[in-house]
Amino acid sequence: MLKKMVLPAAVIVWALWGLSSCATHHEVEVKPVEIKPIHITIDVNVKVDRALDDFFGDIDETAKEIQTTE
Hints:
Layout (H helix, E strand, L loop, with lengths): L1 H19 L24 H25 L1
């Protein structure tokens, strides 16, 4: 009767040992996220300068014509 109990007990102990070795443990370390400011420079003056050149270009040409005729 002892032989009949030893084999199932050994199988149960072996199975529990085998299943316990399958367990894993993971640690995830979360570091604080550093947020840095972003500086963006957009040069809109190019369009304004071109528009002013077109606007004052006529006046400049007229002024040159007046100076050459005098």
